[in-house]
Structures are given as structure tokens and as C-alpha cells.
Amino acid sequence: MLHLAARSAWNRRGTLSLVLLSIALATALLLSLEGLRRDIRASFAQAVSGTDLVIGARTGPVQLMLYAVFRVGGATNNISMDSVRAVAAHRAVAWTVPLSLGDSHRGYPVLGTTVAYFEHFAYGDRQRLAMAEGRPFSGTLDGLYEAVIGAEVAQSLGYRAGTRLTLTHGMGGDLAAEHADKPFTVVGVLERTGTPVDRTVHVSLQAIEAIHLDWAGGARLPGLRIGAEDARKFDLEPKQVTALLVGLKSRAAVFAVQRHVNSHPGEALMAVLPGVALDELWEVVGLGERALLAISGLVALVSLAGLVAVVLAGLNERRRELAVLRAVGAGPRHVLVLLALEGMLVTLAGALIGAAATAAAVVAAGPWLQQQFGIGLQAATPAAGQWLLFAAVLVAGMLASLVPGWRAYRLSLADGLSPRT
Amino acid sequence: MKHTPTARTARIPRPLRPSTVTAPRRALLAAGLVLAVLPGASLRAQPRPGVPQPGPALPAPPSRPGTAAAGAARTIDWDALIPPGWDPMKDLKGLDFSTLSDADPRAAAALSKLREVWDQAPVNAALAGQRVRLPGYIVPLEETRAGLKEFLLVPYFGACIHTPPPPANQIVHVLPRVAAPGFRSMDTVWVTGVMTVVRTDSYMGVAGYRLEAEQVTAYTQRPPASR
Amino acid sequence: MRPGPPCPQHNLLVLEIRDLRYAWPGTAGDCLAIDALTLEAGRSVFVHGPSGSGKSTLLGLMAGVLLARAGRVSLLGQDWAGLPAGARDARRADLVGVVFQQFNLLPYLSVLDNVLLPTRLCAARARRCQPAPAPAAQALLQRMGLPAPLWTRRADALSVGQQQRVAAARALLGRPALLIADEPTSALDAAVRDDFMDLLLQQCRDSASALVFVSHDERLAARFDERLSLPQLNRCRAPE
User: In chain C, where do the E strands start and end?
Assistant: First the structure.
């Protein structure tokens, strides 16, 4: 019976192939959406680990996380170094890592920080940063213009230890001004992390101060030229930073410290727990995700309806075929099973093609996503949600195929051996 | 911007109503009210869409008196985490909060005193080493692909968003033995495992609770059976 | 392995119709009324009937596809009406072979697959094939004048005459008790038709199958053991 259904479907592959493609497309949509959901969420969740609080100007928790950890978007305000020192002096705080953002290099964000970053920053499952080549910047005046680059920057720009680069003011663009008089040298390349660290250029806070000595409001001050060497003689301690990563001696103290920071009298500060802020992000994003999934589900239903329509439309021409089957001894029930099997085979083939297309898309688009956003896609291990959706498509196809099967059943009952065509 | 105190915001977290504290109960209610309307407190962030409002404290399961059988986890409630005789309000007796206005500096001073006391709340050493089962809300700390690897368990909803954070002896630092997938911030769960008391000379007094969880399951009215 | 029903011997009563009354569903009056009709194994009967005289209806009743309103239609002693639908289909697969006027074959199957169809649907019929369904089918095709190269070709790649012979082979595979032919030669031209007739009648005699041959062409009647006229057989005056 299965063999018969397969041959019958193959015989009509011209019209069925269009339906097959639409089922494949719908399945691919559903599966890739679900896979993206899972992978994006996992990528974001593992971008930072071991950090108890992220402190910044009082914007919103999600926005703070986005620009402090994911280097996406811009900070509306900075926090003063006085506040940073006050937080660092708190009894419960074990370490702090200040972050300064604003410049870029060929589209990649530049992060100003201290050497404590390489010691305390962790991602994934408490994994520390490791050097693939070279060493972290020294943080001293001698090593003022040293830079450490992430694996993605090194790979796509072809940089290694010893490469010289200049920073661009702001986030780049065609007319962006360059800090061309103060070039940097790469002293280290980080191992790949699968997080936004890969696409970051790290320099010291003092270096950020140095390159902005003769700048004001986004442009060079006319007539004022401070050379790279002369910059070392100035006071390069930063007055402001963009954000602060904080680690506590006891993790259970996080609420108390958060409250302390939020009610800081001097400046409008905000402290967020990374995990909680991320969950808030997913709450909001979840609405969009559910809408997209619903639409994809509708697409799947539409393509299955197309399958039913195509098979039903062809039934009239097949009444003689059904009569032949009845003549050789197939009962109406056999006819129902045959038609239903045809539909299910088409659904199965379409779903498999869709799944293969999803995997291929992940392989093709994965590197680009990694480069642009630091998101790692996994094709090899399908998410539980993906299995569920695949099964749902198959079950829906099974149910949909019963419709032409039932019609064929009724037809062959009525026609008997002599169809009225 | 004033945050309208609803009945829920004003309600004290359950643990502060143990039977040992009776007389200052009204004062504590007022203290909660004061906390909620204190101007300038950045805790009162305006409600965001999608972020749930703080709800009532978790209903405690029917308590099972008696010592734990060898190997079986004892279901406890948050009251058990408070050492008997701890009275956070003892320095604040004598202040009738219902007569104080919001802007009175004595209210602010009492409030910060209360906060300090809560932050240094002692632990109940009798729980150390016991295998217990406790319900609570999740505040995630570490999450990987496999699931939650570290989180804090708190007794009431919104402990880090809207309402004042709980006292130190009402926070449990949970480390699941196996990463727990599928949980989000403020999900309600049952946690089963061995409770330990960790000494740290940190801001949080000298000690806090830590629990190595064998089981983290979604909350149901009946506690889950132990394996 | 338990053998199937025994090969029908000559003089065994294969088909018996008694007091048959049939009306189309939804119509009030009977369109078919036959008092008595019998057929023995190995015998062939030619039923003459112009179009519209109820030939297809009669064949449907004989094959158990349609059920009589009253009376008895029995194949090898078992009344069709006494069986549930599933059992009727199984019995038909086992004991009956059908050849239509045209479009007998499933176009997307090969010639051999088409011939083997009944054996795929009925195990008992497969068991009656000696030594096995496939070799028996091939032998039958050879005897019908269809050489080996044709067996793997798609059924719709053959000429009409060849297709009819394939249909006959399919109907004969497994030695059914009853073989029903509904105007099988009407689409064939004269030369092909005679060959087909000879082959069909010969094979039926060899396998001791009873043959019911319905056609409007009286000239074919000569080769058959019995000749009947459906308008005379049918007691109903107004054919539909």
C-alpha cells in the first residue's frame, strides 16, 4: 500500500511539487524561527558570567545591558569616576571593572577598560578570557597605545600582534573623524568566545582620555595639537565612564548593593542584575516571537490547505483509477488509506526538505551572524521546540490528508465499478 | 512619581509576621507603607509593560512538624529561616509610624536603620546540614545553554524590582547540582536540597544561606515527592 | 502453510442468482429484476445488452460491489449480502477478476506491477499462484502474447490492445472462480479483437474460471457456451 501511494504521488509530481515546496518553506520558517530563538537567547545569556551587577546611568535595564555587555546602541549618559570609586569602596564589593564606549574601528566597537577586565570578566560558564596570541595591555603610561583585539576582529581584518591601527571617533561612517595622530599597536589577540568580546577592540581607559585630549564635542579643537608622546604628560585619569561591572564577595548581597547604588545621593545611577535584565528583554521580545511563530503556523496551515486542494481537485480525474482498484479487490477503506498516505508522504518529504533547508541556512548565515552580532548558531543539535514543530507539521499533514482520503472513500463507495465520469 | 500603594505592595513579606512578634505588628504595617511611598526611592520604577506587578507572598505549604526521617527532605517555610527571638523592630519600638508623615526625617532615619538591620539579619544555625524543601521565587544569577546554574531564592514576588529587598536571612543562594532549564526571573519553584550556612565576613553580616539543590521543580500546591 | 480454497472443478456451481431485485438508491422502482441465472466453473456466458440496459449494474451485483434489494446473488455458495463490506472486498479480491472496456490499468505502475496487484491485496490469491506470484504472472503474460521486454514498461506506454491483454492477465492471475468482462473489445479493432477473444476464452478454460462477457456486439456471441439477452432476462420494463 505504501509502495502504491509512493508511485501514485510520484506520478503526479508535477502538480504536487509546488505544494511540496510550500510545505518545505513553511517548515523551514517554523524551524529556523525556533532555532534562532533558542540560539539568540543562549548567546545573550552566556555573554556575561560571574558579574553580579552592571551599573550605569539611569536609563533602562535592558538598554544598559545592551550597550554595556553587547556593545549595541549608545549610552545616553555617563557615570562619574567619583561614583565608581564610591561603589568600589563599598564593603560588599569584591572587584569592579569600568567600561568606556564611544569609539570604533572599522565598524567594530572600541572598549576602554582596565587590566582588571582580563582578570575578572567571564562568559559562558565562568570562563575567563584567554589570549590566543600576545598579552593584555599593560595599563601603564609606557604601554599607553596598546590594544587587544577579539578573535572576530583579528580574523576578518587579518590583524595580528604588531599590527597598527587607528581609532575612529563615534561609531564610524563615511564622514567620521579619525584619531589619526595617535595610532595603536595590537599587543594581543583573544581566543574566540562566541560573545560580543570577539568583535571588540580593547584599549586602556587612559588611552581613551589621551586621544580625546584635543577634542571637544565630537571634533578636533582647531589650533590645538597634542601629539602622541606629549599626551603622556597630561593627567589621563578618566573623569567619566560609560558603565561598571561589579563582582561581590557574597552573591546574596546583591539586593542590598543594588539598593545602595540605586539610592546613591550624588548621581542618578542604576544597578541591574544581568540575569533579571535579560529575562525582562525576553519578556518584551517574546511578544514579537510569538507573533512570528503564529504567522509561521498560519503559513504551514495554508500550505497544507493547498495540498488538500490539489489532491481533491485531482480526485475527479482519478475515479477510473479508483474503480480499477476496487475491481482488483481494494475496499473503500483501502482507497482512503491510499489517498491519506499520499498526502502524508508529500508532507513528510516537504518537512524533510524544509528541515534540510534550515540546517543549510544556519551553516550559510552562521558566520555572518557571528561576525555582525556575536551570536552563535547551532545546526547540529536541534532544539526541543524544533522537534515539536516538525512533529506538529507531520501530524497536521496526516489530518489534512484524511480529507481527500475521505472524499475518495465516498466516491469509490458511490461509483463501485463504473464511475460516472 | 508616586507609586500608588496597593494592598499588595504594602503587605509585609510573610516572615516578618511570626508569632513571636505581636505588639509592633501595626508599626510594621506602617513601616511597610512608609517604605512604599518614600519619595525618591528608585526602587519604585514605573510599571513596564510585560513586567509583572509584585504579587502577594507565596502561600506556605502545610507545615510538617517533626524531625526529618533519614534521607527524606523536610518541607519548611520561610519562617524557619529566621532564628527564634530575632526582632528587627526592637530598636524602633516607641515610634508610632501612623503619626509620622512621609517627609518626616525620623521616618527616613528609621527606614535606613531598618534596612541596616535587615541586611545584617542573623541566620538560623539549626538548619545547617539539613535536607529541606522550600518554595520561592527565582532571581537568576548564572544561566548557560544547559539552564540555570546559580540563582537566589526569595520569599516574595518582585524582590528586586519594586518592593524592598528581603532581609539577609530570607535569601537563599541556590546552586543546582544539575543546571535547571526553562526557568525565568520570578518563576515560582520548589527547591530541594541540603542547606548550609556560609560564613563570609562581608557586608551581609557574618553568614548567609546556601543550598545545593538536587531538585528544582515548578511550583505546585503540593510539594513534590522526594526521590 | 494452509492452502487456499481448492481450485474450482468443472461442473461446480460458481455463480447463482435467484429472484434478484435491484433499484438505484433514491429511485422508487426496480431497474433490474432477474429470476434465475446460474453459471458453472469453466463455462463462458455471453450477455448481450445495448447501452443503458443495466449491464454495468448486473456486473456490479455479480462482483458484490452492489447489493441487491431482494433476492440472492451467491458466489461459490456464499451470498454477497451475507457478508460485511470488508469481507466482501476481501472475497472479491480472492475469487473475482474484472476487465473493463478501457482504462484497466494504473498508468504509473509497470506492466508486471499491474498484473500483480490482486496478489498484493489478497494473500489467498497469491498462494494459489504456482510457484509464486511473479513467475506465474510472467508466464501468464507470455501466454497472452506479451514478451518480456514489455513487462517493465509503464502501463500507459502500451497500445490499447496490449493493455487489454495485460488487463486480462491480471484478471486471470491466481485462477479466480469468476471472471467478469465488461465490453473489453469495444475499443479494439477487428483483428486485435479476435486474437484477444481467443486468448481470453482459452485461458478461462485452462484455469476453470467462469466467464461472464457483456457486450452490445452480437457477432462475438458465437464462441461462447451460452448466450443470454439482458433485455429479455430483465423483468423490469423501463430501463433507466
Answer: 13-22, 32-40, 44-48, 70-75, 78-79, 96-99, 178-182, 210-215, 226-229
Could you give phi then psi for residue A273, rounded to 5 degrees?
A: -85, 125
What tens digit of pLDDT does each residue of A271-310 get? 999 988 888 888 888 888 899 999 999 999 999 999 999 9
Chain B touched by A282 (CB under 8 Å): yes
pTM: 0.72
Instruction: Name the phi and psi angles at A29, rounded to 5.
Output: -60, -50
Mean pLDDT over each residue of chain A, to the nearest integer:
86
Residue C27, phi then psi, degrees to nearest 5: -100, 155
C-alpha A331/C-alpha C91 separation (Å) is 11
Are the C-beta atoms of residues B152 and B209 closer than 8 Å to each other? no
Rounded to the nearest angstrom, the minimum Cα separation between A369 and chain C is 47
Count of CB pairs separated by less than 8 Å, A with C: 71
> What's the rounded Cα separation, in Å, for the pair B89 and B92?
5
Instruction: List CB contacts of A137: < 8 A, sequence separation 6 or more.
Output: A115, A143, A146, A147, A148, A187, A188, A202, A203, A204
Contacts of A301 by beta carbon, 8 Å cutoff, 6+ apart: A396
How far is the C-alpha of B43 from the C-alpha of B53, rounded, in Å?
13
Cβ atoms A108, A203 nearer than 8 A: no
Positions of chain C with pLDDT under 50: 1-8, 239-240
Q: Which residues are C22's β-sheet partners?
A: C32
Instruction: Check CB contact of C55 with chain A, cutoff 8 Å.
Output: no
pLDDT of residue B37: 39
Q: Are C and A close enough to touch, i.e. 3+ CB pairs under 8 angstroms? A: yes
CB A248 within 8 A of CB A93: yes
Residue A352, C-beta contacts closer than 8 angstroms, at least 6 positions apart: none
- Cα separations (Å) of A117 from A3, A61, A135, A165, A204? 65, 21, 13, 21, 10
Question: Nearest CA to CA, how far is C215 from chain A (Å)?
Answer: 15
Query: How far does C116 lie from chain A, in Å, by closest CA?
Result: 10
Q: Which residues of C touch A334 (CB under 8 A)?
A: 89, 121
B120 and B63 Cβ atoms separated by less than 8 Å: no
* Cell digits of residue C177: 472462480
Q: Which residues of B touch A276 (CB under 8 A)?
A: 139-140, 160-161, 185
A187 and A140 Cβ atoms separated by less than 8 Å = no
Q: What is the pLDDT of residue B101?
A: 65
User: Could you read off the pLDDT of C27-46 as tens digits, one per residue?
Assistant: 878 888 888 888 888 889 99
B136 CB near a chain A CB, below 8 Å? no
Cross-chain residue pair A258–B40, CB shorter than 8 Å:
no
Provide the shortest C-alpha distance from residue A288 to chain B (in Å).
12
